[in-house]
Amino acid sequence: MKIATFNVNGITSRLQRLLEWLDESQPDIACLQELKTSDATFPLQAIEAAGYGAVWHGQKGFNGVAVLARGAQPVEIRRGLPGDPDDTHSRYLEAQVHGLTVASIYLPNGNPQPGPKFDYKLAWFERLIQHAAALCEAREPVVLVGDYNVVPSNEVGDIYSPKSWLDDALLQPESRDAWRRLLAQGWTDAIATLHPGVPMYTFWDYFRNRWSRNAGLRIDHLLLNAAAAKQLASAGIDREVRGRDKPSDHAPAWVVLK
DNA sequence: ATGCCTGTCTGGGACAGA
């Protein structure tokens, strides 16, 4: 069972990159973020033609998350996190498919900080922590994947160099503290567990030659509860996707469960 | 040192992203 996460940065302009990656990587489940399109304009036909069923939560111009499943129709469990009825952002979609529960997460970026966007990020994180507690305790496998917009540490496995990012919302102690408290519920960070100490970046800014210099950040994560972690076989990053024509600024990350 | 690129909505320039 291969589960992947991919921030596509606009599914409309990224559709060919997405389809070729699905064909190559053959994930059983693919969670997408930053669709940047409305529910009505989600390219369902092309995704079904590629052999995938889908549920999605779109938003015109911004945000947007989806869960794709190869040869299956995901069953939607929840769209949006509980705890704030005024939150209009499409950032959380939870579904059951292929015998497990999976969530596609697009955690707020939070820049600039300090400020209201950073406050929103931290508040959203607290709502995720609240909601994730019961999922972590589930006896069935649960996988929370997506763009968490947190660089977990300043180590080279997580960032090429923290120097120019020290004031960024992705590295702030508050962001990292929330990340640590989420993991402390009992989640396994699949990439960090299987590839400690080596660069496992998932994002490279479009400018400043960040891709050609491999000046990347590890911000897309795959978290497994105990039942899922028992099945953990391998994990990786499809880096080559970032080097193609008209790429997303993120590369897909994936985990295989036995 | 700096959104320096890129996508979206829109129809040129603003906003958002990380």
Automatic annotation (TrEMBL):
GO terms for molecular function: double-stranded DNA 3'-5' DNA exonuclease activity. Residues 4-250 form the Endonuclease/exonuclease/phosphatase domain. InterPro entries: AP_endonuc_1, Endo/exonu/phosph_ase_sf, Endo/exonuclease/phosphatase, ExoIII-like. This is Exodeoxyribonuclease III. PANTHER family: EXODEOXYRIBONUCLEASE III. Keywords: Hydrolase, Magnesium, Metal-binding. The keyword Hydrolase applies. Its cofactor is Mg(2+). The gene is xth. NCBIfam families: exoDNase_III, xth. The keyword Magnesium applies. Its EC number is 3.1.11.2. Belongs to the DNA repair enzymes AP/ExoA family.
